[in-house]
Amino acid sequence: MASIDTISRNLMLDSLREYAKRRIPYDLIRELDEKNEFPADILKEMYEHDVLGLHLLMVPAEYGGVSGGTFDIYRVCEMLARIDLGIATGVFATFLGTDPLNVGGTSEQKEKWLRRIASENLLVAYGATEADAGSDLINLRTRAEQVVKNGKIAGYNITGNKQWISNGGVADLYTILAMAPGGPSWFLVERNMEGFSPNKHEDKHGIRLSNTAGLSLDNVFVPAENLIGMEEGKGLLQAQAVFGYTRVMVAAFGLGAGMEALEQAIRYSQQRIQAGTPLSDKQGYTHKLIVPNYVKLEGAKTYIEDVANRLDSGEHGLQTEGAIAKYGASEWGNKAADDAIQALGGYGYTKDFPVEKIKRDIKITCIYEGTSEVLQMTIYRGRWQEHLKSRGRYYLDMADKLDQVHAGEPGAGAHAAALALRALAAVLEECRVHKLTRHQHVTFKLGALICAAETAAVFATACAAQKYGETVRFDRPTWQAMSRVFAREAALGVAMEGLALVLGASENGGDLAEAVNMTAVQAEQKGMIADMDLVAAKLKQTFKAK
Amino acid sequence: MNIVVCVKQVPDTTEVKINPETGTLIRNGVPSIINPYDHFALQTALELKKKHGFRVTVVSMGPPQAKSVVQMGLALGADEGVLLSDMAFAGSDTWATSYALAKAVKKIGKTDMIFCGMQAIDGDTAQTGPAIAQHLGMAQVTFCEHVEVDGRRIIARKQIDGGYETVECRPPALFTMIMHKDYVPKYPSFLAVHASLAKPYHVWSAEDIGAEAQYLGLKGSPTQVSKIYPPPQKEKAEMFAGSGQAAAERILEIMRKEHFTQ
Q1: Phi, psi angles (nearest 5°) of residue A8
Q2: For residue B173, which phi and psi values (nearest 5 degrees)?
Q3: Does residue A369 have an active-site annotation?
Q4: Which helix (H) or strand (E) holds A522?
Q5: A135-139, A246-250, B115-119: range with lowest mean pLDDT
Q6: Could you say which of A331, A356, A369, A430 is catalytic?
Q7: For residue B247, is it within any domain?
């Protein structure tokens, strides 16, 4: 996928930030949140070509867009999430809704529909989910029956109900997944088509600025040329082909919203004086509520950027990586937002302060576009195959690479990351030998451990490299300290939890402490508090009180 | 008419910190922005372009990443962009910088109006604009908040102590701009940023503009900054985060406590 150059991308981000500052102040967001109201005027304005033209990011330049790549879209999603996750979801729905076209559309379909989306600023919705078909689309009930005229398929009559569709009540164009005779297929449905009607707007826990509604399709006739790809049965493949990429977007939401909550807490902690000193100077506060969360999100960010860059450089699929990116960023972002409320104490629990809303909003990132549990399973499945195929070498080879990274740059946390990977390899092997993956709990837990270990590996590798990404806001010693904190926690977590998992599931499991190298993992914890002290001090310096 | 707008990339000073030990700016992780006065100058020039069809060229001097402010000018509607970027320029003070910018203006060709911001928010010298006019032997009107063109007459509203002065002049002339109180800075759309990549953009070295090395960089700079330090802190202010209403209630509460009101 093509990408935008760094300077242009940053100019676009500046424009988005300034627009939000001027047009979407927190008082307005709070009011809309209370009223459970979708800001149609703002969404439309953000799509105006001379205001922002946000939706053009998803449209190739040849159809009137600006050809954004995965990295560009990640950066924009991250910023949107900082502004408001509901608005971000509204924009994301257009991105997601456009995806089946981008992936599976014929050149004529792209020419027609992508150009229309670009030039008419169409709000798009992605209609896959149904009451019984969420993460598991096999139970799809919506049907598309062929309408044959003069011996040719003239079109399809679509009947069924969709549920929890973002932009459901407000979109101009819908991509609808329905079961055609040849299998699940995507169809383009316009709002004004006969028999099509959106249901009521849901009253949600969070992202209340996002319109969410069910859709009713009662014998909606769509012409044959609205079947995406002009071939039945490609729907699931088309949906799965973009998971790596769409999950990076939701990962960016967890990251952006989580970071925003934490940064607000860091600024607040410098003003709040308790027992004579600011909260930001107390280890009991920073090392519990701030530093571990920030470090996790910094790791998640590095991982997201790695996946985005790989997708932009032409790698396909990356479903396991997309799942790791989303699982880590959304779970850690959710925890960060929760701790941000704690960090603001009573103030954080009131609606006067945005962290309360961020916490409600961010929870959705653990649910939509693959729940955390589905992702744990996806991650486990993907890597379990690699473990078996490589006869247990997959993580050992990765650890060997980390050893090389460590030899070149000993301060980047690569040694601890290698310990995490080797411990993981040992746990996976023990699971294989004792057939422990028959326990679903084991497989899901493995998914979580894999996420931590792989993120540590990517973080340490990036920290050891000479060239830093454009989003790193810290000097080298601080960034490396963050990576060390992350990797130590990952190593300890994989070793301890892996050990507990194996012992808990196995009837005759042996002593794993040696296999996971517990002695080395423990020794690696040396210097942890000094690193956390450094990170706490630098966070305070970077996000000073306003 | 042909207009040149001089813009500078500066660190966002609301985010800049000074290292108290070394007396240098901590720029790590600090975003760069277009100098806000230059932004206003650019918008003034682009409004004149819109109204009269003038041609606008944006010029900046700085490291390669300063392309950003030139491209922003192009995205907002300028016709051509120039970045003076060369190690020979590094360390230039306002005198050497204005010499280089004046040389660039000469290379650009016939120029009727030059717009600059009143000053840059990182250096606050307010010297570069006037010095460019001096190098070019051009008339100058400083501290303008509005500039209008009527045929060959240029009418500028200039801020003076306690009021305004209307100054009329003829081209060529240079204007340094303060910010109009009702000014809303414009930012380019995604599409405009994308389209700006197709506009003419040049990177010129010292040699390209025929600048003599002895007048450039640290060597060509009669002034040098020896130390930067933050002003001594007065009493600490307490800031209230959250909504406007919550902050107002808190302020009222304190005012009552301190018996400013009942």
Answers
A1: -60, -45
A2: -155, 155
A3: yes
A4: helix A518-523
A5: A135-139
A6: A369
A7: no
Comparing CB atoms, the residue among B191, B239, B244 nearest residue A546 is: B239
Closest A-chain CA to B193: A8
Specify the number of domains making up chain B.
1
Q: Give the residue from A70, A69, A74, A67 showing the smallest Cα distance to A88.
A: A74
The string of DSSP codes covering B8-55 is -EEE-TTT-EEETTTTEEE-TTPPEEE-HHHHHHHHHHHHHHHHH--E
* Residue among B17, B26, B187 whose CB faces A18 most closely: B187
**Spatial contact of A85 and A206, defined as CB atoms under 8 Å apart:** yes
Q: Is residue B159 part of a domain?
A: yes
B contacts of A269 (beta carbons < 8 Å): none
Please name the member of B67, B188, B243 whose beta carbon is closest to the beta carbon of A352. B243
Considering the domain boundaries, does residue B96 fall inside one? yes
Q: How far apart are CA A283 and CA A351, in angstroms?
A: 27
Q: What is the rounded distance in angstroms from the CA atom of residue B161 to the CA atom of residue B237?
A: 30
Q: Do A271 and B238 touch (CB under 8 A)?
A: yes
Residue A1, pLDDT > 60, answer: no
In a domain? residue B160: yes
User: A18 vs B185: CB contact, 8 Å cut-off?
Assistant: yes
Chain A residues near residue B198 by CB distance under 8 angstroms: none
From A324, A330, A459, select the one nearest A405 (Cα to Cα). A459
Check residue A113 and report its DSSP letter: I
Cis peptide upstream of residue B172 (ω within 30 degrees of 0): yes
**CATH code for the domain of B57:** 3.40.50.620
Chain A: residue whose CA lies nearest to B241: A353
Residue of A nearest to B76 (CA): A50
pTM: 0.92
Q: State how far residue A119 is from chain B, nearest Cα, in angstroms.
A: 11
CATH class of this structure's domain A6-123: mainly alpha
Predicted-complex ipTM score: 0.93
Q: Give the number of other CB atoms < 10 A from CB of residue A507.
A: 6
Q: Which helix (H) or strand (E) holds B202?
A: strand B201-204
Hey, which residues does A174 pair with through a beta bridge? A125, A189
- Torsional sign, CA A384, A388, A394, A395: positive
Contact B190 A57 (CB under 8 A): yes
Task: Please state the domain extents for chain A.
Answer: 6-123, 126-232, 242-366, 372-542
Q: B156 in contact with A at a CB cutoff of 8 Å?
A: no
* Tokens 């990549």, located at residue: B197
- For residue B73, what are the domain limits? 2-226
Report in angstroms the alpha-carbon separations of A27 from A90, A163, A206, A260, A351. 19, 31, 16, 17, 10
User: Could you report the per-residue pLDDT of B78-132, keeping only the tens digit for each?
Assistant: 999 999 999 999 999 999 999 999 999 999 999 999 999 999 988 888 999 999 9
Sign of CA dihedral A250, A255, A261, A263: negative
Shortest distance between the Cα of B30 and any Cα of chain A, in A, equals 7
Coil, strand or helix: which one is B178?
coil
pLDDT confidence band for A474 (50 / 70 / 90)? very high
Check: CATH 3.20.20.70 for A126-232? no
Q: Does domain A242-366 have CATH number 3.40.50.2020?
A: no
DSSP lists the bridge partners of residue A190 as: A173
Q: Which residue of A has its CA nearest to B30?
A: A473
Residues found in chain A: 546
